[in-house]
Amino acid sequence: MKRFLQLLGAVVVAIVGVLVVNTMRSARAADAAVVPVDVAVDSVGAIGRFSKALTFPTISYDPGTHPTDSAAFRALQAHFVTSFPLVHQKLKRETIGLALLYSWPGSDPSLDPVVLMGHQDVVPVIPGTENRWEQPPFGGVVNGGYIWGRGSLDDKVSVLAILESIEGLLRAGFQPKHTIYLAFGHDEEIGGHGAETLRDTLIARGLKHAALVIDEGGTVTDGAALGVTGKVALIGVAEKGYLTLELTANGKGGHSSTPPAHSAIGVLATAITKLEASPFPMTLDGPTEAMLESVRARMPFSRRLALSNLWLLRGAVVRALSAAPMSASMMRTTTAVTIIGGGVKANVLPIDAKASVNFRIRPGESVASVTARVVQTINDTSVHVAAVGFAREPSTVSDANGAGFAAISQSVREVMGGADVTVAPFLLMAGTDARAWSAKSSQVFRFIAAPPDADVLTRVHGTNERVTPAAYLTAVRFFDRLVHHTDDLP
Ligand SMILES: [Zn+2]
After folding, report:
1. Would you name the residues annotated as active-site residues?
2. Which entry of 307, 369, 370, 387 is 20 to 30 Å from 418 by CA?
3. Which pLDDT belongs to residue 222?
């Protein structure tokens, strides 16, 4: 017994030793110093060109509800022509439908090209909320320390920052090694066919791989939300898939005075209860694990200890992260019952009842595997399960250790505070046009380089979308640096 206790003691000491050594090692893995780079920008002119772009109502309406205002897109594109003369002199410009493609030939045509993406369209203003806007959504107003308007964050900020940065680079005589394409779709908010057409156009012309693709996505946030000191720039290395399943339960109808044990509504309610009681499993791996690995060096000791020793503490970490919807969503396919309907009159049994359930699918699962699990969980053949609306698979997961991620990381830190900002890969919950490039590059990333306010999620697609002039200029500077760093790509 004594020998056993001695042995046990030795094992405990060894484990504690490994835990502490791993934790110390992760602390030392802090970012190497980066020298901030000063990028000169014509601030007043740049803000004027950006805010003017917000005045064109390039709205993507839900299909079948309202025709696309092509004239608004053409007017926005005409604004680009007058605002960025060097871009339109030196780059080849093509319109494919309402989508826009610019080609900037590199000095070495043997290199894979770079694709800088953004979308010209915006979501509508929610009817009835117009007067909640502090400034008109399509006014292009600069007031009170903000540039206001639909698209100021999603995603005209990226489109304009790309054009502004390249105008500056051309003025300075910069010539990239890689060919650079600017691919600006016109319907990201309703499916992204424009982005797919632009990709197909380039593939038809011989594009095999892209060295780097960057589109909208993650942002720079205060690390406090992650328990991290300093700022964190979250670069989307993957995006979730999307699926809506409609559940339908049928009944015989009839008089409510002689009901069966379960009406169609009751049957449907049971199915919904089963789904909510059996959520998809949570797994800490892939982009979410990589994110935590990247930020743990800036965490307090206890969290760093846990995240540096997932070989032992993975289960406890998953349990801790599952407490908040945001971090839980990063580890699983989510289930959200969003619409329910059934019945027409209080004294009439319903003929049918329907519910819509929206799923955001994590990499590793698929539309088919999610559907199969839902059918299995409900386990009731009287409930019909069918996909409605559009569906898409999760994207591939880009390589956060590749040269493209390194170029983005370096550019972020050069214009956003050097070593004060931690750059981390992450799994984007929303969809972007970038997924169109999944098969053509291992370096497809999602990032909006204009640091937003903390309440960004209520403003994007919501009310009072706005960005500070300083944040917009940061995005311009970011793309200037990123274009420089494309020269470092293989
Ligand atoms: Zn967007």
Report:
1. 121, 188
2. 307
3. 87
